[in-house]
Amino acid sequence: MWNVLLSFSGLVALIQLLFLPFFPESPPYLLLQKDDKAGCLKAMKQLWGEGNYHTEFDDLMKEKAITKGTKIMNVLEVLRERSVYPQLCTMLLLLLSLQLCGLKIFRTANLQESIIPYVSLGVSISELISVIFCSSIIDRFGRRMLLCGGYLLMALILVLLETSLLLSDQFLWLRYCSVILIFLFIIAYGIGP
């Protein structure tokens, strides 16, 4: 029943993809990143209803003033910063634990047992690379674009993956396509959601 479970996550991603365009950007993102005061107040009203949000807006303005002199760090600068090591270690442990994902699909593809750990390691490395890539493009495209694009790609890849798994007994080459689709799914997840 693991394929049903895999399909369920695709259904959840599709639901999120359908409803995400109707939600506004987050007010802190609009104010702190885009410097859009009117958009921030409009998003607050859209998210929380009519009301007076001057206290929350003032808090965001104070946060903006505090972070105004703060330099935005790139990935290499973050890696050199000792204060974020606990968070980095947690993230790396999470990424390394992904080595166990897709073992059933890798076995279905008739990969040699000795190769499967390396393929799983490749999946983890591809997610790490996609997360680093995402962190460098998120300011250019915005969260909404990356989320929508990521969920759309994930839904498409899951449909293709389910199809390839269902037809893999008839067409042996589809087993190898399913391995490639796992890599693409991880990359789409890392760049988007």
From TrEMBL:
GO cellular component entries: plasma membrane
Protein name (Swiss-Prot/TrEMBL): GTR9 protein
InterPro entries, per database record: GLUT (IPR045263), MFS_dom (IPR020846), MFS_sugar_transport-like (IPR005828), MFS_trans_sf (IPR036259)
Residues that span the membrane, as ranges: 115-138, 144-161, 173-192
Membrane topology designation: Multi-pass membrane protein
Coiled coil start-end: none
Keywords assigned by UniProt, alphabetized: Membrane, Signal, Transmembrane, Transmembrane helix
Principal subcellular localisation of the protein: membrane
Domain (Major facilitator superfamily (MFS) profile): residue spans on this chain: 1-193
Range of residues in the leader sequence: 1-17
Alphabetical GO biological process terms: D-glucose import; dehydroascorbic acid transport
Entry GO MF terms: D-glucose transmembrane transporter activity
Location in the cell: Membrane
Domain of life: Eukaryota
Pfam families: Sugar_tr (PF00083)
